[in-house]
Amino acid sequence: MAKENSPKTYAKLSTEFYDLDDHKNHQEALDFYIKLACNANGPILEPMCGSGRFLIPMLQLGLDAQGFDASEYMIQAFKHTYARITDKPAPVWQQLIQDFSSTKKYKLIFIPYGSWGLITDQQDAKKAVETLYRYLVPGGKLVLEIETISSVSEPSGIRRRAVRTRADGSKIALTFITTYQPEIQLFSSHAYYESIINGLIQETEDELFQQYVYRFDELDSLLHEVGFKTIKKYPAFDYSRKVDEYTPIIIYECVK
Predict the structure, then answer these.
(1) How, if at all, do strands 106-111 and 171-181 pair?
(2) Are 157 and 54 in the same domain?
(3) Residues 137 and 155 in one domain
(4) Are 30 and 129 within one domain?
(5) Are 148 and 118 in contact (CB under 8 A)?
(6) What is the rounded CA–CA span in Å between residue 220 and residue 232?
(7) DSSP per residue over 28-92, as a string?
(8) Domain of 59?
(9) Which of 4, 22, 85, 212 lies at a C-alpha separation of 20 to 30 Å from 186?
(10) Are 144 and 77 within one domain?
(11) Within this chain, do residues 172 and 145 fall inside the same structural domain, yes or no?
């Protein structure tokens, strides 16, 4: 299985397409994580921070926040955006969660948008949870947003295409086919990107995007095993509802 943000995932055109994409319900998600961050009252870490959709607004509020991502292109995009709003160094770097180490500990560590599923090997996932637990202060909180089996769209195996327009009018086109292997709970998207300028294809890029999707109760035992004292979970972003086997996106709040 592919590792988290493997070299074939979130390369140059993929990262640019991601930043041009209008993610559904982004404002609701941003409001949710901003509230968590403001209530943390201490250092904040976003592993798999991408190009900064959540972390940059937190930094703009003056919060003590850092992040990292395995994709060099995501980190470059983050730094480019951050440089437009401040001359301060961007507090981000390239790294895998499993390799993370620090002299600092955090009040809040969060991973939004189902990025956790990019860790497709469950031994790596266990190591990653153990690592994040180690760098929380006592009483600190880990917040994970996961996608479940119920989130897998049907049908698969159909070729689809999407196009995004850059500020200068040039375009990025994405052609992709999705597959799902239920026996190993692996969702895959075989993608092909084209950079189109003045009607001509100037650059192309292949991507194999893979994501592990969880059963609705699968992550509970691992979180308890690692040592989290209190674990709450609910559908994104609604505290009032309970999770069941049909819930497509689940948020875990885990207190050390």
Answers:
(1) unpaired
(2) no
(3) no
(4) yes
(5) no
(6) 10
(7) HHHHHHHHHHHTT-S-EEEET-TTSTTHHHHHHTT--EEEEES-HHHHHHHHHHHHTT-SSPP-E
(8) 12-149+216-255
(9) 22
(10) yes
(11) no
Same domain, 21 and 54: yes
Q: What distances in angstroms separate CA 4 from CA 65, 128, 180, one per listed residue?
A: 22, 11, 18
The answer as to whether 90 is a domain residue is yes
DSSP 2: P
Instruction: Summarize pLDDT for 159-197 with one digit per residue, the tens.
Output: 999 999 999 999 999 999 999 999 999 999 999 999 999
Residues 135 and 160 in one domain: no
Give, in degrees to the nearest 5, the angle at Cα 157 between 151 and 163: 80
Pairing outcome for strands 136-147 and 249-255: antiparallel
Q: What confidence category does residue 21 fall into, taking pLDDT thresholds of 50, 70 and 90?
A: confident
Count of structural domains within the chain:
2
Determine which helix (DSSP H) or strand (DSSP E) holds 123, and give its type and residue range.
helix 122-134
The CA dihedral of 242, 23, 212, 144, to the nearest 10 degrees, is -50
Which pLDDT tens digit goes with each residue over 217-243?
Answer: 999 999 999 999 899 999 999 999 999
Q: In the structure, what pLDDT confidence band is assigned to residue 24 with cuts at 50, 70 and 90?
A: low
pTM of the predicted model over 0.90 = yes
**Who contacts 79 (Cβ-Cβ below 8 Å, separation ≥6)?**
90, 92
